[in-house]
Amino acid sequence: MEKNGIIHHIELYVSDLYTSRRFWEVLLIDHLGYKKYQQWERGISYSKGNSPYIVFVQAAKEKLLPAYNRTRVGLNHLAFSISDKKKLAQIRSELNSLGYKELYPEKYPHAGGKKHYALYFEDPDRIKVEVVLEN
């Protein structure tokens, strides 16, 4: 398989590593099949098979402002595939019960359009996270 140009990993700096880990572990480990890959004092990463791994690093205090805003230049969101509607509903229920902010709940599951079946949440730093049904 050709590997040139394939994303190797994604690294995100977060305002509070502990808080971010709680959110991302529910999604990545509990529901999407990722495992802890690497861990060190100021960061952690998660991997799933041969997929790109995802890294979260504690930002230095002096680097916390301005706060992240997905509508500014830069990363808008991360999207993950899922193949089961029931699993998507389970993720929605669990993240809501834990108090995380669902985006566009009044349009669920078609906030991305009539032919797009997806769930949208914000992580603790307000990064938009999409879980989209892939058949």
From TrEMBL:
One Pfam family named in its UniProt record: Glyoxalase_4
Residue stretches making up the VOC domain: 6-134
UniProt KW keywords: Dioxygenase, Oxidoreductase
Taxonomic superkingdom: Bacteria
Gene3D superfamilies per the UniProt record, alphabetical: 2,3-Dihydroxybiphenyl 1,2-Dioxygenase, domain 1
GO molecular function, one term: dioxygenase activity
Alphabetical list of InterPro entries matching this protein: Fosfomycin_Res_Enzymes, Glyas_Bleomycin-R_OHBP_Dase, VOC_core
Protein name stated in the entry: Glyoxalase bleomycin resistance protein dioxygenase
PANTHER family, A to Z: FOSFOMYCIN RESISTANCE PROTEIN FOSX, LYASE, PUTATIVE-RELATED-RELATED
Claim: tRNA processing is one of the keywords in the record: no
Keyword Magnesium attached: no
